[in-house]
Design a protein that fits this description.
The complex is a heterodimer of chains A (249) and B (661).
Chain A lengths: L1 E8 L8 H15 L16 E2 L8 E10 L5 E2 L2 E3 L8 E2 L1 H11 L4 E9 L6 H4 E9 L5 H13 L4 E6 L2 E6 L4 E9 L4 E8 L7 H8 L8 E10 L2 E3 L16
Parallel strand pairs in A: 3-13
Antiparallel strand pairs in A: 1-3, 1-7, 2-3, 4-5, 5-6, 8-12, 8-13, 9-10, 11-12, 13-14
Helix pairs in contact in A: 1-2
Chain B lengths: L14 H4 L29 E7 L3 H4 L3 H12 L3 E7 L3 H10 L17 E5 L6 H10 L15 E5 L15 E3 L6 H14 L7 H9 L4 E2 L4 E6 L2 E7 L8 E2 L27 E4 L1 E2 L9 H5 L4 E2 L2 H15 L3 E5 L9 H10 L8 E3 L10 H9 L6 E5 L3 H7 L5 H13 L4 E8 L6 H19 L6 E8 L16 H15 L5 E5 L2 H11 L5 H10 L13 H10 L4 H6 L13 E2 L4 H13 L63
Parallel strand pairs in B: 1-2, 1-3, 3-4, 4-5, 9-19, 10-13, 13-14, 15-16, 16-17, 17-18
Antiparallel strand pairs in B: 5-6, 7-8, 11-12
Helix pairs in contact in B: 5-17, 6-7, 9-10, 10-11, 11-13, 13-14, 14-15, 15-16, 17-18
The chains are: A alpha+beta (249), B alpha/beta (661).
Chain lengths: 249, 661
């Protein structure tokens, strides 16, 4: 069995990089006594597999993580904790609360399930991501016009760095959805669904198209979509809205 | 905005201005705070505010235990609160300067200048230019005499504060010794000043009050007299300030189980693990070691308290590694038991690594090695410090070759494949044969390792010796960079072709700059300011260090590197730190220097009768050591007769002759 976890990353912690997030989550799992497993070898590591890496500076309410558990630790749909959680037998909901509590300010576990191991990894199965981002200082009307133009075009060329060389590339095929949502205090807010295959298209690439010269403001990943029997769905639906815990000591 | 004494009321977050800068810089997580253990709701509008600042990057500064201890202690006080700040990396500094964002606290992102005190931790001399840069980024004048009455007070403490003179022009007050108790006295003095509203003319009053506190040095209250290049005296310029400043020492570490909530950073830092200080002070008496001289006596934490701090700390943080820190961890009375208990703790499931920094080879037994290796093996570093027995007698690092080989054998036999050996070069009276003996030791270690594993290897890390204030070697003329470089090359040539011994060395040029600042006097302040004004920040980072900048600064200030760094001092010379007291009698240090040259060893006084260095007797304190029994073979652990040195004292040769100093 394994735990599948969906968590959020909001506020100041959006500046924490993906590798650091993995270390933070590992410490949180250890604090709760999650009965995780270790890899073989000279320096064993805790087994964890994340969904698509989130770029540094991005927020998210849809981060995913699979944690394989030791077989003997799952009893009647409950998780028997070890280590610092020794003696605790948690339901999924209790495990979710405990892990939320153990993670630092800015992180919250919005869903957690016990499920059988197997199938492809999250990284392999995610086909697209939902995003919400703003473009501070950009003109709302022109952003709206650009969105129209993009949607009506069959090709959108962008420049991006590949091995230190600038290459021009069409990204239109990867723009599944693009909408102007609102004009916020900071600037126009855009909603998008962008392909994760064959490569991940980032909102920052769209900003170059919608408002050339502008910097992206705060971008938030809202969904990671997988395909299951021809249906587009999320690996886990949130069981609660993410809490931005009060940071207190 | 007019400044008032109640500046706390005006403190506002810079975060909205800071946030847009962060996507443009490397590793933005180092500027956000948010650590587990960070205090963000401690804001007390009517309390004295401290900004504890580490003048190097976040990654280097965050784990600093001294800063974290003071952070907790101040935040426990009803009349104070503390936040933290670190030197922004150059890319961030550029962003801040171009958008007018000043130095900020990482806890609540408030402007540094709004704090009552900006207190710097000085762990290394090469950060001095960063201190100036941080003060400037805070929007304050770097020179103390150009700051306004109501400006934040600039304080500094840490090991480098024991020679405060190079920074005397920039820092309002220095603290000598342990900070745990003195911060209360400082808070009370500054609180009084804050309540007056900090009117014109009030700064000198608060400085006067600070100068009365034992352990606090206010350099502007002291007058320096020179005769030509020579320093004649540093004496009180104001009545009522003491002629000498005595360090502060906490008598018993058991009273100070801090930090209780070690900060857990969100981004990777050095020493990224639980750190528990198991004792403070060291009396092994290594003559090059400033830390061992200024932190006496030995004060062990009770083993039960160590266990509790380890256990609670691991549970709270989720770390899977703990470091038991001290100046010589294997000397702790109950080290083997504490290590065993930590690994046997059921909650850690046998998955906790223990790292023991600063291991003395004669105390690293197979028992300790076996215990440590039961968990994940951490890196092992031994510090023989010198290659030949003659040299180790001179520096009083009285470990024999056999001690080293036994320790190395213990480690290889318990499954380690590689270890690091730390050495100094440029030591007093060092000959080429002493330098080359390092290679012999390293090769012999590898040979022992090969009896246990095909993969056996050794890394030799070579540092250029910089004489430090308050040590017996404070009178010694440091080797020129050319001479240090020659010795490095000598060793490199000798080890060429040996793939199992990897040689790493510290920049000889950086050692020169460290020498300028380490034993400099107040005139060196001009040099530090020059280097800073010409862009010389982050000087301990090789990509930013430039000796030419220091040479230009010395020349521009009319000062001579030879005189400051490479010249031997004599007994009667007034030293720039003579008015700063770590308890050590100057005649004790001089005698130890003479004994060094004669090759006489000195006992470790935690287990033998007192030889009155002054560190205990001056302050009426004593060692706190659980075990009164010295290790097998005598206090220095090797069984040799410490009185058998060279009969004829070694003469210091004229410098810069090939093959000796």
């Amino acid at each position: 069995m394994r735990l599948r976890i969906r968590f959020s990353k909001l506020g100041k912690v959006r500046f924490v990089g993906h590798r650091d997030v993995a270390r933070i989550v590992e410490r949180g799992l250890r604090r709760c006594g999650v009965p995780f497993t270790y890899s073989e070898g000279f320096s064993p590591r805790v087994r964890m597999s994340f969904g698509l890496a989130l770029p540094t500076c991005y927020e998210s309410v849809a981060e995913y993580l699979d944690v394989p558990l030791t077989p003997e630790s799952v009893i009647d749909g409950h998780i028997a904790c070890t280590g610092w959680g020794e003696g605790k037998l948690y339901s999924e909901r209790e495990m979710q609360d405990a892990l939320s509590e153990a993670l630092p300010f800015g992180f919250d576990v919005v869903a957690l399930t016990l499920e059988p191991k197997g199938g492809n990894s999250l990284q392999e199965t995610v086909v697209s991501c939902g995003w919400r981002f703003d473009i501070p200082g950009a003109n709302a009307d022109s952003v709206e016009e650009e969105i129209e133009r993009v949607l009506q075009s069959s090709e959108i060329e962008t420049e991006r760095k590949k091995k230190n060389k600038l290459v021009r590339e069409d990204i239109r095929y990867g723009i599944h959805d693009l909408r102007f949502e609102e004009q916020s205090e900071r600037g126009p807010v855009v909603i998008a669904e962008l392909a994760a295959k064959p490569r991940v298209i980032r909102p920052s690439e769209l900003v170059d198209v919608l408002a050339p010269g502008a910097e992206m403001g705060i971008a938030r990943r809202t969904h990671q979509w997988i395909e299951h029997e021809g249906q587009r769905q999320e690996p886990l639906m949130p069981s609660k809205s993410p809490q931005l815990k009060e940071h207190t000591q | 905005m007019p400044r008032t004494g109640r500046i706390g009321l005006q403190m506002t977050s810079l975060w909205p201005r800071l946030e847009p800068l962060l996507p443009r810089v490397e590793k933005p997580a180092r500027y956000i705070g948010c650590e587990d253990g960070a205090r963000t709701n401690i804001y007390k509008p009517d309390a004295t505010s401290w900004l504890l600042t580490y003048p190097d990057t976040y990654e280097i500064g965050l784990p600093n235990q001294g800063l974290q201890i003071l952070y907790e202690l101040l935040n426990e006080r009803p009349d104070a609160f503390a936040e933290r700040s670190y030197a922004p990396w150059t890319d961030m500094e550029e962003q801040m300067r171009s958008s007018g964002v000043p130095l900020f606290s990482v806890d609540t992102h408030r402007s540094a200048a709004e704090f009552d005190i900006i207190a710097f931790n000085l762990s290394a001399e090469l950060v001095y230019t960063n201190l100036l840069n941080c003060v400037d980024l805070a929007g304050l004048a770097v020179r103390a005499d150009e700051r306004d009455d109501s400006d934040a007070l600039i304080g500094a403490g840490g090991h480098c504060a024991y020679n405060p003179e190079p920074l005397a022009d920039f820092v309002d007050f220095f603290v000598m010794g342990d900070g745990e108790e003195v911060i209360a006295d400082i808070t009370i003095a500054v609180d009084k000043w804050r309540r007056t509203g900090k009117p014109a003319g009030s700064r000198v009053t608060v400085l006067q009050a600070l100068a009365q506190i034992p352990g606090v040095y206010v350099p502007s209250m002291y007058e320096v007299t020179y005769q030509g290049p020579d320093l004649v005296s540093i004496e009180p310029a104001n009545p009522g300030v003491p002629p000498g400043i005595e360090k502060r020492t906490v008598a018993d570490l058991a009273d100070w189980p801090y930090p209780k909530s070690q900060l857990v950073p969100l981004t990777e830092v050095v020493h990224d693990r639980l750190n528990v200080e198991i004792f403070r002070g060291c009396t092994r008496g290594c003559r090059f070691c400033q830390a061992g001289m200024i932190t006496r006596p030995v004060r062990e934490r009770p083993a039960s308290q160590v266990r509790e701090m380890v256990s609670k700390g691991l549970e709270r943080t989720g770390y899977d590694e703990v470091s038991l820190t001290s100046l010589s961890t294997a000397d702790f009375s109950d080290i083997e038991e504490v290590v065993t208990d930590t690994i046997d703790e059921p909650e850690t499931c046998g998955r906790i690594s223990i790292s023991l920094p600063s291991l003395r080879v004669d105390a690293f037994t197979v028992g300790v090695a076996a215990q440590v290796s039961r968990a994940r093996r951490t890196g092992l570093t031994f510090a023989p410090e010198a290659g030949s027995w003659r040299m180790r007698q001179i520096i009083n690092k009285l470990v024999t070759e056999e001690d080293l080989y036994e320790a190395v054998r213990s480690a290889y036999s318990q499954g380690w494949h590689r270890m690091k050996l730390y050495f100094l070069t440029g030591l007093p009276s060092e000959m080429d044969e002493d330098t080359l003996a390092i290679a012999d030791l390293a090769e012999n270690c590898v040979a022992i390792g090969q009896q246990y594993t095909k993969k056996a290897s050794v890394t030799v890390s070579l540092g250029g010796f910089v004489p430090k204030p308050h040590t017996p070697f404070q009178w010694f003329g440091q080797n020129e960079p050319e001479e240090l470089r020659r010795k490095v090359e000598l060793l490199r040539g000798r080890l060429k072709g040996n793939k199992r011994v990897q040689l790493k060395w510290h920049s000889p040029e950086a050692s020169t700059a460290e020498g300028i600042t380490s034993r400099g006097d107040r005139r060196i302040g001009r040099v530090i300011e020059h280097v800073w004004r010409h862009g010389g920040t982050f000087q301990e980072w090789s990509e930013h260090f430039d000796l030419d900048l220091w040479k230009q600064a010395m020349a521009a200030s009319g000062l001579d590197i030879e005189w400051y760094v490479h010249r031997h001092r004599d007994e009667n010379e007034t030293l720039p730190w003579d008015h700063i007291h770590a308890g050590l009698h100057k005649d004790f240090l001089w005698q130890d220097w003479q004994d060094a040259l004669a090759g006489y060893g000195l006992e470790d006084c935690r287990w033998t009768p007192c030889y009155d260095c002054g560190a205990c007797t001056e302050y009426g304190i004593e060692h706190v050591v659980a075990s009164p029994i010295p290790p097998n073979g005598g206090s220095q652990g090797t069984g040799q007769d410490l009185t058998t040195g060279h009969v004829v004292p070694v003469e210091l040769r004229p410098r810069a002759t090939v093959g000796g100093t």
